[in-house]
């Protein structure tokens, strides 16, 4: 590949002889030419600029001088890259595209107030030239040389043979799916009281890979949430979706990118929205064989706007709702005992859930389009934290239990991921039909829950 840089300060580009870029030049993997713009001037002062048309501060670099310098370098076409604060942000995707093109790449380093706009306009009109006006970020430098160094290194390091281990190019920030790289560590294992995360020294390579992926997504969400909008959602596996949900982003069915989600306590004013959500989602979780009449009766009795508003006000109810924008998309309802020693209301549950006080995770529902998005896992974890923070007669809640359909293996797996374990079974009625559930319990006295 050939790269040419045109500048009025050729010595600024001397670092291109150093490190991997210098070695790549010496090995013939890339040819880099640095050209002094003043060499094409014809006056004795070697003038490259003039005053701005229409007035204004500073000086503008002349189009005729740039044309003389660029014409021979772009005689066979190529890409003309112009660093400018008004350009599009330089991205890894753009760098990858340039490296894959094979060149030639010509970088025009402006100074002063910039290069006469007709230079970019002229070369953009040619079918064999692509003009790329780019910026390193939302700040201003004295000239384009720093950006030229950055672009050159970014492109050259992607060329075959330049980096010794090509796998390292796939695991760094902005590579692959574009997310930021996970934190890295090396010996010593303890430094100034800080430890390397245990998972990285465990010898479990699968667990280490999963941790790194979680950290990569967490860093991206915290530092560059804009990158999440460009993720290929079809490439996100269930673990990715759960991680994103824990970070406040979910991917509903049909969405092109993750969307922010918030979870908060319900207020009485949310009664209508939560009741509508409950009416939509309750039938989806009913055991097979439940009649429509029984479903309608339960909804009309227990899931009304008034009932939800009362739960929002009641001290023994913990009603948490997930929102995407102004839309309620999921909720949990946990019921606290009124006294420390009060057992669960059903004898078969009280027999297998012995910790006191014990709260019931009565409902965990999400809209159909949010199933598989990680939202349910987020809500389950959130419910655990909310109940753990609650008090019954001044005492912390010791256990959170729930009943789930014995045939719903997917739900049971989700609860186990959240720390629930199987404790026994219970029977209950919906209308005239008796059903049997698996009882699962979360130990809230355990650290990390």
Characterise this structure.
- The chain is an alpha/beta fold and 449 residues long.
- It folds into 3 domains: 169 residues, 3-Layer(aba) Sandwich (Alpha/beta knot); 61 residues, tRNA(m1g37)methyltransferase, domain 2 (Trp Operon Repressor, Chain A, Orthogonal Bundle), CATH 1.10.1270.20; 183 residues, Gcn5-related N-acetyltransferase (GNAT) (Aminopeptidase).
- The protein has 15 helices and 20 strands.
- The longest helix is centred in the middle third of the chain and has 19 residues.
- The two termini are 55 Å apart.
Shape: elongated
What is the CATH top level name of the largest domain?
Answer: Alpha Beta
Number of strands: 20
- Return the CATH architecture of the largest domain: 3-Layer(aba) Sandwich
Number of domains: 3
Q: Percentage of helical residues?
A: 25-40%
* Superfamily (CATH H level) name of the largest domain: Gcn5-related N-acetyltransferase (GNAT)
Largest sheet, strands/sense/barrel: 7 strands, mixed
Number of helices: 15
Mean pLDDT equals 95
Specify Rg, calculated over alpha carbons: 31 Å
- What would the CATH topology of the largest domain be? Aminopeptidase
Low-confidence stretches: none
Q: What structural class is derived from the secondary structure elements?
A: alpha/beta
Distance between the termini: 55 Å
Q: Biggest sheet: strands side by side, in what order?
A: 12-13-14-15-18-20-19
Question: How much of the sequence is in beta strands?
Answer: 15-25%
């Amino acid at each position: 590949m050939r790269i040419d840089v045109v500048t009025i300060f050729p010595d600024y580009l001397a670092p291109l002889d150093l490190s991997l870029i210098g070695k790549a030049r010496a090995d013939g993997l890339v040819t880099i030419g640095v050209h002094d713009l003043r060499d094409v001037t014809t006056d004795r002062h070697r003038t490259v600029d003039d005053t701005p048309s229409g007035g204004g501060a500073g000086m503008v670099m002349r189009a005729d001088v740039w044309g003389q310098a660029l014409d021979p370098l772009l005689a066979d076409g190529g890409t003309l890259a112009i660093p400018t604060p008004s350009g599009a942000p330089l991205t890894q995707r753009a760098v990858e595209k340039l490296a894959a093109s094979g060149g030639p790449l010509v970088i025009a380093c402006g100074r002063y107030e910039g290069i006469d706009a007709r230079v970019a306009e002229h070369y953009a009109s040619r079918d064999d030239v692509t003009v790329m006006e780019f910026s390193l970020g939302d700040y201003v430098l004295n000239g384009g040389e720093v950006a030229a160094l950055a672009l050159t290194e970014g492109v050259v390091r992607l060329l075959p043979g330049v980096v010794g281990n090509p796998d390292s190019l796939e695991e760094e920030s902005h590579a692959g799916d574009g997310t930021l790289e996970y934190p890295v560590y090396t010996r010593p294992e303890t430094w100034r009281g800080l430890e390397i995360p245990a998972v990285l020294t465990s010898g479990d390579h699968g667990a280490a890979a999963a941790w790194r992926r979680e950290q990569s997504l967490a860093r991206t969400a915290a530092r560059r949430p804009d990158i999440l909008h460009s993720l290929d959602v079809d490439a996100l596996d269930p673990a990715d979706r759960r991680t994103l949900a824990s970070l406040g982003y979910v991917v509903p069915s049909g969405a092109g990118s993750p969307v922010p989600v918030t979870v908060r306590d319900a207020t009485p004013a949310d009664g209508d929205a939560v009741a509508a959500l409950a009416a939509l989602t309750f039938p989806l979780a009913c055991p097979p064989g439940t009649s429509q009449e029984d479903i309608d009766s339960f909804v009309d009795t227990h899931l009304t706007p008034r009932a939800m508003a009362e739960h929002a006000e009641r001290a023994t109810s913990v009603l948490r709702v997930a929102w995407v924008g102004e839309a309620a998309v999921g909720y949990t309802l946990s019921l606290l005992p009124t006294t420390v020693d009060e057992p669960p209301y059903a004898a078969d549950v009280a027999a297998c859930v012995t910790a006191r006080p014990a709260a019931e995770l009565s409902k965990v529902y999400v809209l159909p389009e949010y199933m598989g998005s990680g939202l349910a896992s987020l809500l389950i974890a959130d419910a655990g934290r909310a109940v753990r923070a609650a008090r019954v007669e001044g005492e912390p809640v010791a256990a959170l239990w729930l009943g789930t359909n014995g045939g719903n293996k997917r739900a049971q797996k989700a609860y186990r991921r959240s720390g629930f374990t199987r404790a026994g079974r219970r029977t209950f009625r919906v209308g005239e039909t008796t059903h049997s559930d698996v009882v699962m319990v979360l130990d809230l006295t355990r650290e990390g829950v």
